[in-house]
Every structure is written in C-alpha cells, then in structure tokens.
Amino acid sequence: MFSKKIIEIKGLHKSYSDHKALDNINLSIDESKIFGLLGPNGAGKTTLIRIINQILEPDQGEVKFAGENLSRKHIHSIGYLPEERGLYKKMKVGEQVLYLAQLKGLSKKDAKQKLSHWFEKLGAENWWNKKVEDLSKGMAQKIQFITTVLHEPKVLILDEPLSGLDPVNSLLIKNEILELKKKNTSIILSTHDMNSVEEICEEVAIIHNSKKILQGSINEIKKNYEENLWTILYSGNQMNFTNAVWGGWELKNHTNLNQNINKAEIKLLNDFTINKFIKGIVDHVEILEINKKIPSINDVFIKATTDE
Amino acid sequence: MSKIGLIISREYLTRVKKKTFILMSFLGPLLIVGFVLLTSYLSQENKEKYEILVVDESHLFDSILRNSDKYHLQWAPNGKNYDEVQEIFKKDDQLDLLVYLPLNLIKTNSMTAKCLYKEIPSTGVQKHLSSIINEAIELYRVNFNNIDISTYKSIKTKINLDVVDIENKENRNIQRKAFVGIALAFFIYGFIFLYSVQVMRGVIEEKTNRIVEVIISSVSSFELMMAKIIGVGLVGITQFIIWAIVTMIMSITIFPLIIKDKYNPSLQMNSDELVNNSFKIDSNNEAIQFIINEVQWSYLIVFFILFFLGGYLLYSGLMAAIGAAVDEEADTQQFLLPLTIPMVFAILMASKVIDDPSSSLAFWLSEIPFTSPIIMIVRIAMGIGDSSVEMWEIILSLFLLTITFIGTSWLSGRIYRKGILSYGKKASYSDLFKWLKN
Known about the structure:
The complex is a heterodimer of chains A (about 300) and B (about 450).
Chain A: E1 5-15, E2 20-30, E3 34-38, H1 45-52, E4 60-65, E5 68-69, E6 78-81, H2 93-103, H3 108-121, H4 137-149, E7 155-159, H5 167-182, E8 186-190, H6 194-200, E9 203-208, E10 211-217, H7 218-224, E11 229-235, H8 238-244, E12 249-258, E13 261-268, H9 274-281, E14 286-293, H10 297-306
Parallel strand pairs in A: 3-8, 3-9, 6-7, 7-8
Antiparallel strand pairs in A: 1-2, 1-4, 4-5, 9-10, 11-13, 11-14, 12-13
Helix pairs in contact in A: 2-3, 2-4
Chain B: H1 3-16, H2 19-42, E1 50-56, E2 71-75, H3 82-91, E3 97-101, E4 114-117, H4 123-144, H5 149-155, H6 174-208, H7 212-215, H8 221-252, H9 254-263, H10 265-269, H11 283-294, H12 297-325, H13 333-355, H14 360-367, H15 372-381, H16 391-419, H17 429-437
Parallel strand pairs in B: 1-2, 1-3
Antiparallel strand pairs in B: 3-4
Helix pairs in contact in B: 1-8, 2-8, 6-8, 6-12, 6-13, 6-15, 8-12, 8-16, 12-15, 12-16, 13-15, 14-15, 16-17
C-alpha cells in the first residue's frame, strides 16, 4: 500500500552567487511519519527547509504540499523550529507566544486556550509573566517548541530540536514529537544526533554536497549498508577457530576476553553463509554467542558521506 | 487583525510602553524649552556694570556722551596722553574698557574711535558704545549747526524696510519666516535619524535574537521590514504629537510665568536705546506676532508631515537594510556615513537657502530626495509663491521623494532578505551588491 505524500519535491535547484546549494533534489515525504533529513554541515539542508517554508524561492523545480503547488496558503499548515532560533528577549513570555501564535493564524482566544494546555503539559505555567531574558536556555527551548506546534500544523519541521537540552527535557520533547506523530502530524527532523534519528525516525534522506545521495526507510537503508559482518563469542583456542574453515570469510578483528573466551569479528565473502561457517567451527570450539552486525545510522551516514 | 497589522502593533506598542518613551515624551519638550531658556540666559550680558575709561582728546564729549548705570563712563585725568592713560587702564582692575576718541573725531567721518579691552566685550556692548558715540557726534553737530533738537528728533526716524512680492502681497519679509522653517527642518532631521536608527536597531535585535527566521516563515521578509518601518514611524508621529501638545500646554501655563519678566514689553521700553539704529531686542514680541500671523501654518503643517514621512520612509528603508547586513551595531559605521552626509549637508546649506530661497541651489536641494525633506520645509515656511517656492516644485519634490523611497525600499528589501539570514560574516559593500543582484 502506498502512503499519501505530504511533501513532494521535484528537480529542485537553488544557487547562491558563489555556490550551488541544491542540485536537482527529488524527495517525497510520507504523511504522518517522522522523516529524518540528514547531511553534513553546509550540505544544503537548511536551504531545502527554507524553501519548504517559503523563506527562499527555488531557482528551478517544484514543491507540492499535500498534492497542491506550495503557496502562501500553506504557511499555516507548517510549523517551523529553525536551528538558529530565539525569542524577543525583552518581551514577556505570554505576550510573545500569543504574538507568534497569531502570526500563525490563530485567533487570540484560540491561542490562549491552546497555550494553557501546552504550558501545563510542559510545566511552564508560571512563566507567562516572565521576561524571556530571565528564562534558562532549556526553558526558552520549550517555549520555542510550544510556539512551533501550537497551531497544530500538518507538517512540523524541526531543525536540531534537542540541541542544548538536558537529558530529561530531551526525552520530554522526544515523547512530544512521538505523540504529535500519533496525531497524524508529519514531521521533518533535521539533526546530527544519529541516536535520535534511529530512535524516532521512520525514513531518512541524506543530502551531501547539494545532492540527495540516499533515501529510504531506516531498515531498508541499514540493510543496504550491511556488510555481512558477524561477531562470534566462543570458548576455545584461536588457532582452532581460524583454521577450522578454509576460504569464504575473513577475520576483521579478534580479542581475547578472558583466558579461553574470545571475541571474533568476521566478514563473510560472496555467497558463503553463516550456517556453513558454524558447521565448520562447531567441532573445534564452543560457540557462546553469534550476532549479525547491523550498521547504525551513524555508520551509514559516515560511509555515505565519505565514500566518493 | 492582519499579520502586518499585528507586527505594526507589536513594533508600536513595545516602543510606546517603554519607560524611556514615556519619559522622553514629557522630558523632550522640557529639554527643548530648557535649552532655549538656557541659551537665552547664557547669551545675556552677565556683567552688571561696565566701568569705561574715556580718553576724549577734543574735550567735547564730556557733556554729550550719554552715561548710564550699566555703562559707567569716567574721564581720563587731564594732562595725560593716550599712552599714559593706557598704562592707568592696565593697572586699574576696576576698569573694564578704554574708549579712545581722537581729536578730529567729531569733525570728520574719516576718523575711528578705539575701544581697548581686557576681556573682549560682547557685540551688544560694542554696539552700545558705537551707538552712544554716534549719538553724541550727531547731537554735537545738531547743536553746532543751530538745529533745534526737537526738529532733529522729528527728522531722525527709524524706518523698517518691508520687502513685498508684487505678485502676491501676502509674501512679506519672507526671510523672517525662515526661523520656523529652520526649527521644523531640525525636527525633521532629528526625527528621521532618531526613528530610522530605531528601525535599524530593531532589525539588528531580531537578527541577533535569532527570532527573525520564525517570523519570516509566517510573513514575507519585505512585509516584516515594511511593518517594522510603519510601526516605528507611528511611534515617531505619536511622540511628535505628544511633544506638540505638551509644548502647547507648557507655553500656555508654565512658559509665561518663567519668561514673564524677560519678555514683558513695558520693561523693554525702558531699555537704554534712545536713538535706535535698527529694530532689536524690543522686536521679540513683534517677531513672534509676525511669525504667528504671517506663516502659512496649514500648508506648513501638512507639508511638514508629508516631508517627514517621505524622508523617514526613505532613510528607514536604507537603515533596515544596514541593520540586516550586520551582526552588531558597532559594524554599522561604514554604512551609516554615506547616509548621514546628505542630511548634514542639507542642514549646513539651510542658511544659504534662506538668503536666496529661489536660487538654483535652493531648487535642487529641495528636489533631490536625500536633502529635500529638510530644505523644502525651510522654503515652504518662507511662503508658497514666486518669492520662495512654487506649488509645482513642492509637488514635484514629493513625487520624486515618493518614487525614490519606493525604489530604495525595493532595493533595501532585497538586501534585507539576504542579510537577515546571513550570520557571522561582516558584510562589505561588495556583499550588498551581490545580494542586490541575486
């Protein structure tokens, strides 16, 4: 079954006077999913996000929002938490969130109602009359998060939403993101925090040197980057282990953990299967544990952006 | 409320609610009035009495040179020559001035009297001395020629020249009205700077606070820039209206109490000018009356507002672009200078324009949009018509100002859009041109 696309990008180009920021980007983002937009610094992610937010115009290409050409009317359907974010320091928290909510099309009354819900939820009830300059960084981050999600956008674009947060608040925001996803919000998460990507994203795309080099579901991508690496924990002699099977594999790493206990990291070559390998060694050493080494998104990211 | 309305109201309210705004609204007029009073106080003679030693070589002046309490004349001892008297003058701390009236002074007009000083006397004192000497010589000659003193007084008269435009006789003595224009020109100059700098600061604040990207994901950057300019402009107009009202209230209530004595005409009549050679201090009231009656206030107020707004829109757009191009206020200097020069130049040229308000210098400076808000208001204050400025010139000037601020707003918008999102790099002129082209 094909899921509905909330954002479709075709042939997107954007150049600045001195360099190309986006080069023929094609991307589609499923509705109600958490989409990780990854890439090294300066790859073009922020430019892409700014184009979706209509802060910048593309030189070429098209962006569709829920099947329609992206236009000013979609502004209210998008919530954007930029990486470079802040608040008016001298303004009171309450005045400021109301102002930002109204800019996103909410009426004052609606905004007040929704705000009291969110303030309570994130433990910010007492901050209404505080000046922003009196808030800690974490508190300000929560306020920014609230102003981003308050108008219940269909698409939420979060650029490094967890940076600068302590582990407790980081978890809090992560859970909120997951809850919003359950309520059918489509979320684009741009971050360098690969653990979070792995934890909450369902699909990712990697942009590198202004081009999209990879897109797919987390599992698919990991599978594509699997190298048939296995770790084997065994008890016995290392010589017996290495000489038990001839050909079809190579030893990548070997560690003696404790007297007779060893850990080997092997790579199976071509069609040589793990079953064949086990058969070969089972009479020579005692197998304690076998694990297939699955690449992390971090590994995939590094490999994808350095293999050229 | 529309989003632009929302931004305008935020820009407006955050500024008018500030304590400094409220304080300045009431302190501003006080400061202006205080400054005027202070300058008039400081320009007053601070010396109560002048002791003046007179060397009268002809011995003809002692009976006819007018003596008074303030300018007390003493005659140099007989038998002492001019050089010796100078030594006496130097040694005697009580003496302030030494006036030397040479032998033939009274007979010919080719001689000059001398005044030697220890501390330089003000021009007022100098004028007084010269007037009493002239007066004495005249009285001597009246007497010498057997002219009756009352006949002489009836002949001696003070004539004011009324300079009138033949086409429009309402236009009289237009240079005297320029005072109002200069005052308004200073207001325009001050307000344009004060508030366009506020626009620039607001832009820098949004940029350094990093809130701008959130805002421009809701409205376009041009809308944000224009809303900010309008919001701050309204703050300027509000401040001006408050100042006008407060000044008016003060001029009705406090002002007359403070300056009652100083401007009381009956007191001034007692001033020591018997034979006057020009209209001077006692013309204060007359001048105020003249300004109130002769200046075309309705036109002046309308055009003041229009030129203030035009100038403000022109400069604040450019200031917004500067604010967007920098990361902190300290980096703005290099860009501010070219904007300041035309305004300062206009203020410096204002006196030349008053001298000849229909000259081509006056024409061009009041048509070029970067100087026109200041120069045109000076010319308008001097009267609309052939003598100073014609209506078509004002309309042309407003038209050029409007076109230019539309153009500069468009250019500023382009710089603003790029600059506002570029952090960490100090922008140069070449960056600005790059942003303009892109």
